Amino acid sequence: MPKAETTFRPIGDSDKKMHGTSAVVISGFSAEEQTALHAHLPQWGMQDIPLVTIAAATLSLTLAEATALPDKTNFGQTPELPRAVVMSGLKEYQLNNLMRGYRELGLTRPLWASVTAHSEAWTVKYLLVELLKEREAMRQAMEAEQARKTASADTPSIP
Description:
CATH architecture: 2-Layer Sandwich
Number of domains: 1
Oligomer: single chain
Number of strands: 4
Helix content: 25-40%
Number of helices: 4
Distance between the termini: 55 Å
Mean pLDDT: 89
Strand content: 5-15%
Radius of gyration: 18 Å
């Protein structure tokens, strides 16, 4: 598989459509959480956006294939997978509404990703692995920064 693209791009709040087929693909959510997310899509301006749950059988699909699945595919299935939300083809304001609304629901923080021209050929499994690696690298960087700050605070200054 290709090396993961790690550049972040700012998202606005416009009607500009992002890359890909319009869909939200999720993994690692309970059946109740899947139902709650689906129920909130209309109030987030996403009434026509399919919500697809990843199950073991769909891990080998590309992101392009997964985002083309019908609404509520694999609903109720809750395999032990990382909690992730993958957004595809959303308008910028929909992406912002989804992220804001998700936080307001108080659900456990997921891995977030948007499908790009570069990533649409990746398998779902590959994306989840890359997201986990990225989260771990960020955790380690934050710990190193905290250790550096603690060490510099403990070091007496020399006049």
